[in-house]
Amino acid sequence: MKRLVAEVLGTFVLVFCGCGSAVFAAAFPAVGIGLHGVSLAFGLTVVGCAYGLGHVSGCHLNPAVTVGLATAGRFEWRDVGPYIAAQVVGATIAAGLLLALLKGHPGGYDATVGGLAANGFGAHSPGGYGLTAAVIAEIALTFVFLSVILGATRREAPAGFAGLAIGLTLTLVHLVGIPITNLSVNPARSTGPALYVGGWALEQLWVFWVAPIIAAVLAGGLAQWLHSPASPHSPASPPARESA
Q1: What is the pTM of this model?
Q2: CA gap 196, 117 in Å, rounded
Q3: Which domains does the chain possess?
């Protein structure tokens, strides 16, 4: 139960602060943090949660991360469903709170018009990119993100730096992907806002589940092979001193 509560809390923080930076700080010229600020907000949120909650639940905060770790053999498949449910709950609560705050603006706020930082393609892509570009971008960028996570959290990786590597990589992929789809790489992050926006956001939501999960399976499968111990008879095996 503690692990699931940590996933609810962490995903709440991710969506509330990441999407919040987009709908509040980036939306008003007087603040104007723009693409770079929103990207950094998502990355900093993951850094904070990784060090604050990682020891409790592993700080997945993302169904794609959960599936990728399970595919790599580093997470129990029986726990995948409860983790994903907890992540969606956290994202939904966060999006609902953001909407409540936005409605406090003197001009009000209509989620179907404002978008609530929902992910989309075509007419709902910040740069007008279509379905094909959206699918390719989400698969490629999720694959990059998951590959770093799976590499930075393996036993042989330098201790204490995984949170920084993961947060900086999330910042990086947002810099590339926000103009294309507002960037998801996280089905829970996409689901929270889409539930309140409805209409087009729910119709396009399938892309932001299918593409990241495909990438997660690919990254997890590659990591299982890439990070497996080398054969002791292989010429490429590290010296015994390093592999001990």
Answers
A1: 0.89
A2: 11
A3: 2-223 (1.20.1080.10)
